[in-house]
């Protein structure tokens, strides 16, 4: 199960932290590390030093220009976040996230991204809105700054504990969280982004949405659909509705 | 309960690790740090740097010549250990240790020490024998070297989780599932039914849905939105979109 998980670091400043993260990952059995627009130079000798031998992970790092691209193939994106945000979003602690691992990975195509933000200011709101859910490590409210590698360590530890527990329990089929096995794989990050683009375009065409006065419309819709976690068939259905809506609006505007 | 726990580092080589440990501790709400025969110079600027503000812990560090002296006031001593030892010893994982916290601390005089060994070779057998039990962080057997601060982070995290759980059990207030209190009440069953009626009507008007050939369309949409649990504001927003869609479709059909 750990093979289906990647760690994504956004805008990391210190090469040493990238090495520390690689070490924490390898220690817990994770292998795939992605960097999004790193501010640190990479590769860098300090990263190798701090990885203390996890150089295979560093050698296979993938670098992306945007978080959107990094999570395009992922069916669950969990972003590390401080507790309070302007717009409430589903928030789990690391154990609750790990507890969902098994059900998340019932389909072999499913892939999970754990996203960690900048050392100084975490993830932006736009980046957090690319996530299905947010993870918060419970910490001392008066001293909540966690080292990046330490945060990855805690999350990876919880995932490893969940995998070990699931191996122990793995004989008689356990009760699934849904009445039956979910019949269709979840939509990928890329498919969801295409849906949100299509949705925004359509809302403009039917005069419901004005991008110059966005209010929080798209954020609220995104939060709603991310919470529901549409599967691939549902996304096709939702896009079919949008296409039918556009057709209706187009006929209307053409005939005016 | 966290006040009754101290972290003991034996023979630490790198001052930076002492700072990293202080940061991890403070982050999880621990305060008391002891050094036993440190090989690193201490105090040291590198420790201050890596503590990122946990200097209060560094300022109050107590230094001992032997582990025996450091744990003299402790009622439970848990030593961090690799998995296999010549002489079998009670071995717990961090969660199992944390699960014992509450019963360990039924008496207010009880004090717990968590002992961590040298970066390069851990605790000696003599030191491990000063411990009531050994703690092992489950890790990749091919890459088991854990950074000292990372090990303290994982143990402290488990202790904090246990304390939070025990506080929750003792007060009725439930933990909130979102990053902040959800700002709007969930939609009532009635409001949702009105939404689904409105949705179906609209889908018929834009020629997406044929009630005579329903397939599973409405069931699938219902399942999707029920999963998301829309709040009242979200239902208003969704219905606003439907009304705008109907307006577009109406204009279109009137003009035909």
TrEMBL record, chains A, B:
CDD domains: SpoU-like_TrmJ (cd18093)
S-adenosyl-L-methionine found in the keyword field: yes
Broad enzyme group: transferase
EC number(s) reported in the record: 2.1.1.200
SUPFAM superfamilies reported in the protein's UniProt record: alpha/beta knot
Subcellular location, record wording: Cytoplasm
Domain tRNA/rRNA methyltransferase SpoU type: 5-157
Reaction catalyzed: uridine(32) in tRNA + S-adenosyl-L-methionine = 2'-O-methyluridine(32) in tRNA + S-adenosyl-L-homocysteine + H(+); cytidine(32) in tRNA + S-adenosyl-L-methionine = 2'-O-methylcytidine(32) in tRNA + S-adenosyl-L-homocysteine + H(+)
Keyword S-adenosyl-L-methionine part of the UniProt annotation: yes
Chief place of localization: cytoplasm
Keywords: Cytoplasm, Methyltransferase, S-adenosyl-L-methionine, Transferase, tRNA processing
Entry's family note: Belongs to the class IV-like SAM-binding methyltransferase superfamily. RNA methyltransferase TrmH family.
Quaternary assembly: Homodimer.
Function (record text): Catalyzes the formation of 2'O-methylated cytidine (Cm32) or 2'O-methylated uridine (Um32) at position 32 in tRNA.
Stored PANTHER family: TRNA (CYTIDINE_URIDINE-2'-O-)-METHYLTRANSFERASE TRMJ, TRNA/RRNA METHYLTRANSFERASE
Name listed for the protein in its UniProt record: tRNA (cytidine/uridine-2'-O-)-methyltransferase TrmJ
Organism for this UniProt entry: Marinospirillum insulare
Origin organism lineage: Bacteria, Pseudomonadati, Pseudomonadota, Gammaproteobacteria, Oceanospirillales
Gene name of the record: trmJ_2
